[in-house]
Each structure stands twice: as structure tokens, then as C-alpha cells.
Amino acid sequence: MEKTIHTYTVSIYTENNIGLLNRISAIFQRRHVNIESIVSSVSEIKGVSRWTIVVKVSEEQIKKIVGQIEKQVEVIKAYYHKDEDTIYQESCLFKIKSDLLFEEREIQNIIKDSGANIVTVNKKFFVLEKSGRRNEIEEIYNQLIPFGIMQFVRSGRIAVTKDEMKISEMLAAFSN
Amino acid sequence: MNTETLKEQKVTVATTERISGCEAIVRCLLEEGVDTIYGYPGGAIMPVYDELYKYREQLHHVLTRHEQGAAHAAQGYARISGKVGVAMATSGPGATNLITGIADAQIDSTPMVCITGQVASHLLGSDAFQETDIIGISTPVTKWNHQVTRAEDIPEVLAKAFYIARSGRPGPVLIDITKDAQFAEFDFKYKKCTGIRSYTPIPKMDLEKVKAAAELINSAKKPMIVWGQGVILGQAEEEFKAVVEKSGIPSAWTILGASAIPTDHPLNVGMVGMHGNYAPNKLTNECDVLIAIGMRFDDRVTGNLATYAKQAKVIHFEIDPAEVDKNVKTDIAVLGNAKETLAALLPLLDQKNHEQWHDEFRKLHVVEFEKVIKKDLYPTKEGLTMGEVLKEINEQSKGDAAIVSDVGQHQMIACRYAKFNKSKSNITSGGLGTMGFALPAAIGAKMAAPEREVVAIIGDGGFQMTIQELGTIFQQRLPVKIVVLNNEFLGMVRQWQQLFFDKRYASTEMINPDFVSIAKGYYIEAKKVTKREELKDAVAEMMGNAGPYFLEVCVEKEDNVFPMIPTGASVSDVRLS
Ligand SMILES: Cc1ncc(C[n+]2csc(CCOP(=O)(O)OP(=O)(O)O)c2C)c(N)n1
Ligand SMILES: [Mg+2]
Predict the structure, then answer these.
(1) The ligand 1 atom nearest the CA atom of B495
(2) Which residues are paired to A131 by β-bridges?
């Protein structure tokens, strides 16, 4: 059971440090685990970074990996979650010829139905933004591809967890 | 607040003054109580060496003959004393030469701080002369590393470095300091680091887990303890001995755990692992409760995991949560420092002696004695064995010597047969198996514990990897005893070739130089022994000598080390021949 492969979202709270990316990615690299996506951002706590890494591994593996991540000096806390335990989103941008926006009724419908946003429009192109689950992004991608996409980019996953992380309490306990 | 911390604070305030970064580095080392450092100068670290010259009365810098030697010497210093070893090197090749020692310290949990010089910060990333990304290179083999580009960051970063290196599960830390940061002046103030918010050196002990462990131990019919270096690093020897004696449990050690309790303690049943003793290896697969204390189930200890102690319930006393369930699934994990967890365990244990169970160990020991030990220690054939050399050293040192071994057959023989009365006496490269470790490590060990006899046991191959450190030994007039067990082979590899590659001795035979002349060339007294009759007197002469001494013993060329668990085999398939 522990050996079946799942998608795991790893959330890591860290101190800001230039070298930490190297240190953490080395832990995945040593075990030949491919990082599906990685996002680094600020967190709800001032001065604390939050990393969101998505990997496909077994529970047995992810436990060991997260253990080794957590023991890094500048890692405050690391967690792993299955998809059902998080609320997660990805975001993507499409750059498309402006003519199409006005000439193809179909495109207007796709935009309306998918809940995508137009970020900017100029004479040459317009940019469409869509956030959502991977399958939603893939759906709109597949719908738009026949019309010709000038550029496409998708972000890594960001996720919040359903249960509490209690990082603030941990940090408060330290300063006391 | 006690008076000591008050005093400390006063000192800190009083020392606020304007000094350069390079002087600050030396002052930080002094604040941390460092008395000896090992290193090698070069362009990017020269300002620090200039300060070391000024402070030479307070801080002894030992010039090794290679930066690898500096790192291993710092390791030897740390392993025998429990204090943080310090090594220093210049940028580029100086820094990269430290890496083997750092990797060794990382895998063997040795507290060490390495300080490297770096090109000036405006040159970083430009492929400047002797610029190398030592932070990038050392990241996977350090517990922590950091580059300093501003003088005013030096005290805080070095304070953190020492704290991280020594606390929790110890390890190596590398601090890279740019040349401009060494030159810049700032207001120096030192404050020891006592905590880092993102870092929990010792996990909190859970008393419920201790109780559960005690219950399981008390109900066990055939319990067995395997202890590792965690007992030594946690300074838990007393508590450990009390636990062993009260519970009466047969206790075996990993290589790095050796000497935590004396070799001839009646409950000490020997070494586990690839070349460990027959009884504890075999009976690992017969015990009902396996109690692992401060060890990490290295593959050289467990053999094939699929057949390792499957019948047993496993209790793991461990300071590093990442080690729990990493290799062997535990039933009860007791996190914490061994000193604390074992002290909590002791009163909960029933007094027992497990007489019948001990008999099984004795029976298998007799088998090992007949098939292996007798031949090793009391040989009747003409050629000398490595084992009889160790036996002679044991007899003459009475077991009080610290044995620093290199890597290979002689290492396994040294670990198997050396007699240890005192903790921190077995200094060897366990996890990394670094040939060339012993000679420089013996330097550090002797300097940290000058009152102790330090005997290095080295193979003819490994000796030639760091042979230049004879120069350091001579210059420092260090009375270390160096024993080279010369089989004219990379013996351990040859053994594998014999057993698993049909005796195809690919690149393992060596035509060696005249080692005695080389030692003498370094003005070190030296002798070579080729016959059994000469051995006793030669060892006596070595031990009685007040200075450094080199002894070459020509041993049987093609002896093998047994018992042996072939790679991938089960501990219970341990071979005696
Ligand atoms: C730096 C390094 N290179 C290679 C090895 C692989 N290796 C392990 S034991 C050994 C042979 C050691 O020969 P020697 O020093 O003569 O000791 P002996 O086994 O003969 O006692 C070798 C080459 C190693 N452990 N370390
Ligand atoms: Mg040899």
C-alpha cells in the first residue's frame, strides 16, 4: 500500500537563504525523484518563505524525503499532502493574435465559459489568464490550440492545506 | 540567570572594538574555545593567516601537507575529544581539497567547522583566479554552509557555525569568507549562539514511547542491543552501561559505536556488520526484540534489508527523526538524546540476566574462535597475520591506546581485535570508508589528547594517499605511533577479487617504496618487521619511544578477513571462510 505512487504536494516553510534551493533540490535529485513543479513565495509570516513542490512518489518515499528536508537547518517545517487534503491551483497565460478575438465568435465563448480573464489587449495580441486545476487548464488549452497560440506558459502548483500548519505557534514558542 | 552567563555577557560587552574581519575570525575561534586548527594558506585566506601569526600564542595553527590532511586532522581532533574540529583553507583548490574530509565528517556525524577564503565579493561569479563555487560544491556534504561577504556578519555566522556543528546530531559546517570581508573593519562583538528558530537539534522525548519501549524490553525473551556512535556523541556511555547491565541484554556495536563500553565487558558480544562477529550477526535474525541505540542501520550493518531481523520487534533510540524508518521499519521509535532517553528508560527496566540466551552467543563465539579467530591471533603458518599485530599492540598498550585505523582489511582487523578500555578510542572512517584518513586523523587525535597513546593502523595502499603528513608529524614532533600493515596489495579489493571475480587481480598489487626510508627521510624513527620473532620487541620499542615512530609489518599477502557477509546477502548468511 505504502508503495503505490501518488501526487504529493510538499509545503516547506523556510528562512530566506540563497543556498537553500540547492540543498532541497539535492534531496530529490539523490533519489532520482523528478520535481513536477516548484514554487517559492512569501508566506503568511513575515520573513518566512514558503515552497510548494509537487512530486509523484510513494508514501514511503515522500516520508523519507520530507524527513530529510525537515532536518535542514533553515527549514522551519515541511509537510506533505495528497491532493484531497489541499486546495490547489495553477495559473496559465495564453498570448493570442488580436484578430481572432474579434473574428472568432468561438473564442469569445471559450473565454466566457472557462472563466478566463483577459489581461491585456493591443493591436497585435491579447493575453488570457486562467487559474484552476490542471484539467481545467488543459481543457482550455485544447480548445484554443486549433486557433493558434502564440505563446503559452503554465505556473507550478500553489496550494493551501485543509488542516492547520501551526507555524506561527512554533515560531512564537522559539522566541519565548 | 547564573553567574556564569552574567560573566559571559560582561566579557562580550567589554570586547566591543573596531577590528578587521580577518582578526574577527581568529577572535571568534578563541571565543569558541578553539586551541588548535589545521590548515593550509593561500591567496584568498592570507589576511587570516596574518592574524594567526599575531595570535600564535593563543591559537595553534598546524600546517598540514595537504588540505585533505587538515580536514581529517580536524576530524581526529573532534572524534577523540568530542569538541569541534577546525580546518582552514584558501579558495579554489584549497577548498575543494577539503571536500573528502567534509563528506567523511558528514556521514560520520563529526562536529567540524571549515573556514575557506574566497575571492573578493565583486569578483564572485566571474571565474576569477581560484574562484570556485565551494558553497555549491559543499552543500550536499555539509550540515550547513554559508558565504560571508560583509565583515560585520562574521561573528554571528561563526557563532552559528559552531552551534550547528556541535549540537544535535553533529556534522560539518563550511563558512566561505570573501577577501574583502576579511579586510573590512567593523565593531566586533561576540555572542555565542544558543538557538536557531528553524532548527531543532534534539527532538523532544516522549515518555510514553520510553514506557512502551521498557515494556517491550521487559517482556522480551531474546532481546539484543545494537548500539552506534550516538551513545558516544550523546555522552551517554554511563547511562548506556547502566541500561545494559540492568537489563542483562547481549549488546553488539557498529564500527563507530566501538569503545562506548569496554571491549571485555561481559555483556559486550562484539561487532555487527559485514566483517563483524559471527554470533551477533547470526542472532540478529533470531532475537525477538532488537534495540537499536544511536545507530542508523547502514547497509554494511544490515546486509540485505529484506531478510534483516524480520522476526523481531524493533525499538529505535535516535536523535535524528529522519533516520527512523529510513532503512528498517521500527515498532517503537524513541526520539531524543541517548543520554536523556536511556536515563529515562533505566528505572523502568527489570533486572535480568538472560543466561540461556547469552549461551547461544557463547556457542557461536566458540565456532568463530575455532574457524577464524585462532588463525588470526595464534597463527601457526609462517607469514605474519594482521591479527597478531593487533594482539601484540593490545597486550602492550593494555587496551588504553586510541586506535586510528585507515580503510581496508587492516581496518576490519583493527576494529575486530583492538581492545578498548575507554570511550572515543576507535577512530576510523566508517560511513565513507576514506582511504588516507588515518595518518592525518591520528595527528588531530594526538593533539587533542596528548596524554593518550595514539596508534595509527594503516594499509600500504592508504598510507600512500596521505603519506606527506609524515612531514606534519615531524614538524609538530608528535609522538604518534604509525603501524603500516604491508601486504603489498589493496588487500580488501583483492579479497573481493578473489572471492567474487575469480582471482582476477586487476590493479590491486602494488610495488611499494621503501617505507622505512621514507619515514626516516622525514626524520621519524622507523623499523621494519618481517618475522614473528621480531614483532614483540619491535612493538615494545615503538611504544617505549618518546617521539613519533613508524613501524612497518610485512604481513601475509593474501590473507582474507572473515567472517564476511557478502554484499546483498543476509546477516544470517555470514561466512566464516
Ligand atoms: C579513497 C578511496 N579509494 C578507494 C577505496 C576503495 N578501497 C577500499 S579498501 C581498499 C584497499 C585498501 O588497501 P590498503 O590500504 O593496502 O589496505 P588493506 O586492505 O590491504 O589492508 C580500496 C582500494 C577507498 N575506500 N577509498
Ligand atoms: Mg594493503
Answers:
(1) 19
(2) A91
pLDDT of B9 > 90? The answer is: no
In the sheet with A48-58, reading across from the earlier edge strand, the strands are A35-42, A48-58, A5-15, A75-82
Inter-axis angle of helices B409-417 and B491-500, nearest 10? 100
**What is the arithmetic mean of pLDDT over B320-325?**
97
Which pLDDT belongs to residue A2? Answer: 78
Residues A77-108: tens digit of each pLDDT = 999 999 999 999 999 999 999 999 888 889 99
Distance, CA B421 to ligand 2 centroid (Å)? 28
pLDDT band at A7 (very low <50, low <70, confident <90, very high): very high
- Tell me whether residue B185 is one of the annotated catalytic residues: no
Mutate: best of B134, B148, B198, partner A, most A CBs <10 A? B198
- Answer yes or no: is pLDDT of B559 > 70: yes
State the amino acid at position B45 in one-letter form. Answer: I
Rounded to the nearest 10°, the torsion over CA B136, B141, B146, B148 is: -70
What average pLDDT does range B348-372 have in this prediction? 98
Q: CATH classification of A5-85, choosing from 3.30.70.260, 3.40.50.620, 3.40.190.10, 3.30.565.10?
A: 3.30.70.260
Cα separation of B254 and B397, whole Å? 23
Asked whether residue B574 carries a pLDDT value surpassing 80, the answer given is: yes
The dihedrals phi and psi of A144, each to the nearest 5 degrees, come to: -85, -25
> What would you report as the CA-atom Rg of chain A, rounded to the nearest whole angstrom?
20
Q: Where in chain B is the domain with CATH 3.40.50.970?
A: 17-188, 382-555
**CA–CA min distance B256, chain A (Å):** 22
Rounded Cα distance between B511 and B464, Å, is 12
The number of C-beta contacts closer than 8 angstroms across A and B is: 46
Q: pLDDT, tens digit, for every residue of A55-73?
A: 999 999 999 999 999 999 9
B493 lines ligand 1 (CB under 6 A): yes
CA dist., res. B396 & res. B404, Å (int): 16
pLDDT digits (tens, 9 = 90+) for B362-396: 999 999 999 999 999 999 999 999 999 999 999 99
Residues 6+ apart with CB under 8 A from A63: A80, B325
Report CA torsion sign: B121, B123, B127, B128: negative
Domain B207-360 sits in CATH 3.40.50.1220: yes
Cβ neighbours of B507 (radius 10 Å): 9
Please state, rounded to an integer, the average pLDDT across all residues of chain A: 93
Ligand 1: nearest atom to the Cα of B100: 1
Would you give the DSSP letter of residue B319? S
Q: In chain A, which residues have their Cβ closer than 8 Å to the Cβ of B149?
A: none
Instruction: Return the SS3 of B169.
Output: coil
What ipTM goes with this model? 0.90
Fold type of domain B17-188: Rossmann fold (3.40.50)
B67 is catalytic: yes
Q: Average pLDDT of B297-309?
A: 97
From CA B455, how far away is CA B543, in angstroms rounded? 9
Q: Which three cell numbers stand for residue B491?
A: 588487500
Q: Do domains A5-85 and A88-154 have the same CATH topology?
A: yes
Domain covering B382-555 in this structure, CATH number: 3.40.50.970
Residue B85 in contact with residue B112, Cβ under 8 Å?
yes
Q: Quote the ligand 1 centre to B462 CA distance (angstroms).
A: 6
* Beta strands, E only, B349-453: 402-405, 426-428
Q: Which candidate in B9, B17, B129, B501 is catalytic?
A: B129
Which of B340, B343, B339, B289 lies closest to B316 in space, CA to CA? B289
- Sequence-separated (6 or more) residues with CB below 8 Å from residue B484: B458, B459, B460, B463, B515, B550, B551, B552, B553
CA of B407 to the centre of ligand 2 (A): 9
